[in-house]
Specification:
Distance between the termini of chain A: 40 Å
Distance between the termini of chain B: 80 Å
Strand content of chain A: under 5%
Radius of gyration of chain B: 27 Å
Oligomer: heterodimer
Number of strands of chain A: 0
Largest interface: A-B, 23 and 16 residues
Structural class of chain B: alpha+beta
Largest sheet of chain B: 7 strands, antiparallel
Largest sheet of chain A: none
Number of domains of chain A: 1
Shape of chain B: globular
Helix content of chain A: over 70%
Chain lengths: 116, 624
C-alpha cells in the first residue's frame, strides 16, 4: 500500500507508510503473546485507530476544500474524497478497532496468557 | 468437527472455489494462441489470386498449403474510396482452398469498372483462432442484474482484434474491423455497475447481421498496398486495422505533424471555421457553421498550424492560419466585452451561438497563444494589438491570489465567479507566458508566475499529494516562462506529473502490444483514447525541456515521450491504412482511439503538436 499510494508530500508518505508499520506491530505483538505482546498489539491497534481518525479528518477537510474551490469538478472530487473516507473506515479502522475490543476482553487477555 | 478444522475450511474453501472458477473461465474462454502470421510470400500469393478474381480471371494458388482449423474462414473485402465494393467468405481445409473458394465467389459478383478495380484495395481477414462468446451456461448460471449479460458482451471481446461468427457452417461472420466500422462494438457504459469497462458489444445491431452469434475469432489481417506504392512490397500486415508504424525518428515525426496540418487545412472552411468532426467510417463531416464546435479548440488548432509553420516554413500554411485567425478576430470585434481597462482597450473572444455560459477564459487565452505563435512564425505583428487587448482582459480576469475567473457573464456584464472549468487556468498562464516571450513586458511574467504558483499550490492538501488533474497546460506554461521565472517547485511539480502519468502509460502487454505508449485515461479496461497521448506528451516535452534548461533533466520522461510518440505514429491515418476511411482528405487525421473512427480537430492538434515537439527532443536541438 505504501508503495502503491505514493504522495509527493513527505507528510503523506509518512502517514501512508505508518499504516502497514502499525499493522505489522499489532501482528508481531499477537505472535509474541504474553503481557509484552499484548501491550505491543494494543499499541499497534490504538495507533491504527488514531491514524484512521486522522485520515478521516483530513479527507473531510479535503472534501470541503474541493467542493468549495473547484466548481462541479470539485464536487465530483469531493465525492471521491468521501468514498475514500468510507474505505478508510473499512480498511484502516475497522479491524484494529475490533481487535482492540477483543484484546481488552477477558477472552483476549486469556489468549495472551494474562489471566491465570 | 474440530474448531481447528472448521477454521481451516473457512480459510481454504472459498479461495479454492474462486481459484477453480478462475481456472475454468480462463481455460474455457481464453483465445488460443494464434499461429505465426503469414509471411510476405504467402500474403502476396493470396492477394495475387484474389486480384485475378476481381478481374474475372483464373489464378490457381501456389504454396498456400497451411492447414486451417475450422476451415478458416477467410473474409475478403474489396475497398474502393473507403466503401466495400465486394465481399466474399472463403472456406477450405487449407489456405489455398479457402482462397480458391473466396476467389470463385468474387468472380461470381458483378465486375467493378476497370479503373475502380485497379484502384481498389483487397483486405483479407484469415480466422486463425476461435473461442466462445460470453453468453453460454457459465454466465447463465450466475446471473447478477445489470452485470452478467452485459459483462458477457464486454469482457470476452478484444475490440478491433476479435470478430464474431454465427452458428452453422454458412452463418454470417463479422470481421474485427467490421465490428468497429459498423459501430457494433462502441457501446459505452455497457456494464452499468462497472462504468470503466468499455466498450461493449451492441447485441441489437449485431442481431441484424448474425441471428445466432456463436463464437468470436482472432484473425491474421492484411491489406493490399495503395495503387501508388503497390509494387513496393508485400501486402501490409495490420494490427487492429493499423499498419506497422514508421520508426520513431525526428524526420518521421515532423512529417506526421505536417500531415496533421494538411488534414486540418483540408478541413478548414472558406469562412475560417474547421470541420469539427469527420467520421471516417461513414464519411460524415460536421458543418463548420452549425452544430458542435468549440472556440478554444478552434484557437488551439490554429496555434498548432502556426507551430508547424514556424518549424517548416511551408507557404501553403500561412493563408489558412490567417483565415482561421480572422474568424477569431471577427468574434472579438462582434463580441460584447470590449471595454477600457486603465485607459487601454481590452476584449474577449465570444461566440454567442456556442458560449451559453458566457465568454470563456479558455477561448481568449488560446487565441492569444495562437496569435503569438503566428507572430513568432512569421515575424508579422498584424495581430499584436488584438493579442494585447485579449491579454488585458485575461489580466482583468485574474484574482489577487493568482487564480482566474473562468467565465464572464455577458448578459450582466460581470465576472461569473462560481464557475470553474478544467484547463482554463493553465491556458491563461500559457497565454501570459507567451505574451511575455513576445513583448518582455514584466507585467505578463509576474501574472504568469502568480497563475502558476496558484495552480501548483492548489494541490497543497492531503489528497492533493496523491493525484494530478489535467495539468498539461500548466507544465507547458512553466517551461514557456523560463528563465524569467525559474522555480524548483515548477520542475518538481512537472516531474511528479511525469511520474504520475508514467504509471498510467501502457507497456507492451501480450495481445495489446499496439497500445504501448498510450495513456489509459480512466480505466485500464477501456480503449486508450489517442488525444491524451498527445496532450500529455506535449506536457512531458515541456517538463523534460524545463529539466534540460535547469540542468536536471529527467531521462525517464524522455523515454516516456518517445514511447508515446511511437504510439501516435502508429495511430495516425496514412495512405497505407486509409482503405476503410470515407469522405476524402483523411490522411493525417487522428481517430479518437484505436477503435473510434471519429477524427475531431483537437485530436489532430494535440497529437500533431506532440509529434512536432518530440522531433525537437530527438534532434536534441536547443530551444528556439
Amino acid at each position: 500500500m505504501a508503495f502503491a499510494a505514493r504522495s509527493r508530500f513527505a507528510e503523506g508518505r509518512v502517514i501512508v507508510g505508518c499504516l502497514p508499520a502499525f499493522a505489522i506491530m499489532a501482528a508481531v505483538g499477537t505472535l509474541v503473546g504474553g503481557k509484552r505482546g499484548w501491550r505491543i498489539a494494543c499499541s499497534g491497534c490504538i495507533a491504527l485507530c488514531v491514524m484512521a481518525a486522522y485520515l478521516l479528518l483530513a479527507l473531510c477537510v479535503d472534501a470541503a476544500y474541493l467542493a468549495g474551490v473547484y466548481g462541479s469538478f470539485g464536487k465530483a472530487a469531493a465525492s471521491f474524497a468521501i468514498v475514500t473516507g468510507l474505505l478508510v473506515i473499512e480498511l484502516v479502522g475497522l479491524v484494529p478497532a475490533l481487535q482492540l475490543k477483543w484484546l481488552r476482553s477477558r477472552a483476549g487477555r486469556r489468549a495472551f496468557g494474562m489471566l491465570g | 468437527m474440530k474448531r481447528r478444522t472448521q477454521l481451516a475450511l473457512v480459510w481454504i474453501v472459498p479461495p479454492a472455489i474462486f481459484a477453480l472458477a478462475t481456472w475454468h473461465v480462463q481455460r474455457h474462454y481464453a483465445m488460443p494462441e494464434p499461429p505465426a502470421r503469414l509471411d510476405d510470400a504467402a500474403r502476396t500469393e493470396v492477394v495475387r489470386v484474389l486480384r485475378a478474381a476481381i478481374a474475372h480471371a483464373d489464378a490457381a494458388p501456389k504454396h498456400l498449403d497451411r492447414a486451417l482449423d475450422d476451415r478458416g474462414p477467410l473474409i475478403v473485402t474489396v475497398w474502393r474510396d473507403g466503401a466495400r465494393a465486394m465481399r466474399a467468405v472463403g472456406r477450405g481445409d487449407t489456405l489455398g482452398a479457402a482462397v480458391t473458394d473466396a476467389a470463385a465467389q468474387l468472380r461470381a459478383q458483378p465486375p467493378l469498372p476497370a479503373a475502380d478495380a485497379l484502384a481498389s484495395r483487397i483486405e483479407v481477414d484469415l480466422a486463425v483462432a476461435r473461442a466462445p462468446l460470453g453468453d453460454d451456461w457459465v454466465f447463465a448460471a450466475f446471473r447478477f442484474p445489470a452485470m452478467s449479460a452485459e459483462l458477457a458482451d464486454t469482457a470476452p471481446i478484444h475490440p478491433g482484434l476479435d470478430g464474431i461468427g454465427g452458428a452453422g457452417d454458412d452463418a454470417a461472420l463479422l470481421a474485427p474491423g467490421e465490428l468497429v466500422t459498423e459501430d457494433m462494438i462502441d457501446r459505452q457504459s455497457a456494464v452499468p455497475l462497472l462504468p470503466g469497462l468499455t466498450p461493449g458489444l451492441d447485441r441489437r445491431k449485431l442481431a441484424q447481421v448474425i441471428a445466432r452469434p456463436a463464437f468470436r475469432f482472432r484473425t491474421d489481417t492484411f491489406v493490399e498496398r495503395p495503387l501508388a506504392t503497390r509494387g513496393d512490397g508485400a501486402p501490409i500486415p495490420l494490427v487492429r486495422g493499423a499498419p506497422p508504424a514508421p520508426p520513431v525518428t525526428a524526420e518521421n515525426l515532423r512529417t506526421a505533424a505536417e500531415n496533421g496540418a494538411r488534414y486540418l487545412v483540408a478541413h478548414l472552411g472558406p469562412d475560417g471555421r474547421y470541420v469539427y468532426e469527420h467520421d471516417l467510417a461513414s464519411g460524415r463531416r460536421t458543418d463548420p457553421r452549425a452544430g458542435n464546435y468549440s472556440i478554444p479548440r478552434h484557437a488551439g488548432v490554429t496555434y498548432f498550424l502556426a507551430q508547424v509553420y514556424r518549424a517548416t516554413g511551408e507557404p501553403w500554411l500561412r493563408e489558412p492560419i490567417e483565415r482561421a485567425a480572422s474568424n477569431l478576430e471577427h468574434l472579438v470585434e462582434a463580441g460584447p466585452c470590449k471595454r477600457t481597462i486603465d485607459g487601454e482597450p481590452a476584449a474577449c473572444v465570444y461566440d454567442p451561438r456556442l458560449d451559453r455560459e458566457g465568454a470563456s477564459l479558455g477561448s481568449s487565452a488560446l487565441t492569444v497563444v495562437a496569435l503569438v505563435e503566428y507572430e513568432r512564425a512569421t515575424q508579422d505583428a498584424r495581430y499584436r494589438p488584438l493579442a494585447e487587448e485579449l491579454t488585458r482582459w485575461i489580466l482583468w480576469m485574474q484574482r489577487d491570489d493568482g487564480s482566474f475567473t473562468h467565465v464572464y457573464d455577458v448578459e450582466h456584464g460581470a465576472k461569473k465567479d462560481g464557475v470553474t472549468m478544467l484547463y482554463f487556468s493553465g491556458e491563461a498562464a500559457l497565454a501570459l507566458a507567451r505574451m511575455y516571450e513576445l513583448t518582455h513586458d514584466a507585467r505578463y511574467a509576474h501574472a504568469a508566475e502568480r497563475a502558476l504558483d496558484w495552480n501548483i499550490a492548489w494541490y497543497d492538501f492531503f489528497l492533493g499529494g496523491f493525484f494530478y488533474g489535467e495539468e498539461h497546460w500548466t507544465c507547458i506554461a512553466a517551461e514557456a516562462i523560463w528563465p524569467a521565472v525559474d522555480k524548483d517547485a515548477y520542475q518538481d511539480f512537472c516531474d511528479g506529473y511525469g511520474a504520475f502519468l508514467r504509471d498510467q502509460q501502457a507497456g507492451d502487454a501480450h495481445d495489446q502490444e499496439d497500445f504501448a505508449g498510450s495513456y489509459n485515461e480512466a480505466s485500464p479496461f477501456g480503449m486508450p483514447p489517442n488525444t491524451p497521448a498527445g496532450s500529455r506528451t506535449e506536457a512531458m516535452i515541456s517538463a523534460y525541456l524545463l529539466g534540460v534548461h535547469r540542468k536536471h533533466p529527467d531521462l525517464r520522461i524522455k523515454d516516456q515521450i518517445i514511447r508515446a510518440a511511437a504510439y501516435l505514429l502508429a495511430q495516425q491515418v496514412t495512405p497505407d491504412g486509409d482503405f476503410a476511411a470515407k469522405g476524402g482528405d483523411v490522411d493525417g487525421g487522428m481517430p479518437g482511439s484505436p477503435i473510434d473512427r471519429t477524427v475531431r480537430i483537437d485530436y489532430v492538434q494535440h497529437t500533431g503538436s506532440a509529434m512536432l515537439r518530440a522531433a525537437e527532443i530527438l534532434d536534441q536541438s536547443p530551444r528556439p
